[in-house]
Amino acid sequence: MIRFAANLGFLWTDRTLPDGIRAAAAAGFDAVECHMPYGEDPVAVRAALDEVGLPMLGLNTDHSGPEFGLGAIPGREAEARDDVDRAVEYAVAIGCPTVHVMAGRSGRIDGAEATYRSNLAYAADRAQEHDLTVLVEPITTNAFDGYHLHAVDQAVETIDALRFDGVPDVVRVILDFFHVVDMGDDVLDAAGRLGDRLGHVQIAAYPDRGEPDAGDLDCAALIPAIAADYGGYFAAEYRPRGDLEAGLAWLSPWLAGRAA
Fold first, then answer.
1. Is residue 237 annotated as a catalytic residue, yes or no?
2. CB count in 10 Å sphere of residue 75
3. Is 40 a catalytic residue?
């Protein structure tokens, strides 16, 4: 069964996180994920998750500053690790299994990749303490100028280097349809190159990043093709083209197919 998650950083953003969780459950989603939940009481978030029976799949380290994350920013290591500690603590409190370490806009200057790997090693050690997974995500530089990790092959290189250095093997990659295609890559080919490094998938249309039922990507074909070798959720991280509730019509055929 193909399972879908609602990204509450893009959907139901007019509500508190607990109410967004309830809305996602009512819409038929199997799980939720979020971006930066730190202004929300983790006790209330955990209670909402338990109430509706959905898992929270992931959250991000703080990316509210102009750098859009600090993981690969030389000279900011102490702050980056504080962000990791905060994210791990929150994840544990709400029962969330993954933490996405935001790399930031390093421009890939000298020392940036070494800083990134060092901070990811720190995050991996912290994650292993709590049986969590660390996620990284290639993000398009067309939308986020100078973002350090912007290509799938860069993510492969980083994870392989961490493995070679004996870092706990808990770092995986988010494959985001929109970001991958915007950087000129092929989604299905990228998934194949990631292999066992693939940790999570996010879906949206291209090029408008709307509901995954239009545009240049055939999500109806891509999703089952990837699901053949991937047992995780497909997270809807899109920007509604209009009314959010009306736009959820894209999900109906998938849910109806389960009963067929």
1. yes
2. 10
3. no
pTM to 2 decimal places: 0.97
Beta bridge pairs of residue 175: 201
Catalytic residue among 33, 113, 211, 237: 237
249 pLDDT above the threshold of 70: yes
What would the pLDDT profile of 6-54 be if each residue is shown by its tens digit? 999 999 999 999 999 999 999 999 999 999 999 999 999 999 999 999 9
| Residue 114 and residue 73 in contact, taking contact as beta carbons nearer than 8 Å | no
Model confidence at 260, pLDDT cuts 50, 70, 90, reads low
Phi, psi at residue 201, to the nearest 5°? -130, 135
Give the active site residue among 33, 113, 137, 211: 137
- Both structure tokens of 23: 């809305």
163: which residues sit within 8 A by CB, 6+ positions away?
169
Q: Which fold has domain 4-259?
A: TIM Barrel (3.20.20)
* End-to-end alpha carbon distance in the chain: 12
Q: Mark out the alpha helices in the chain (DSSP H runs).
A: 17-27, 42-52, 77-94, 112-129, 152-164, 177-182, 187-194, 219-227, 244-247, 252-259
- Nearest alpha-carbon partner for 122 in 79, 58, 153, 157: 79
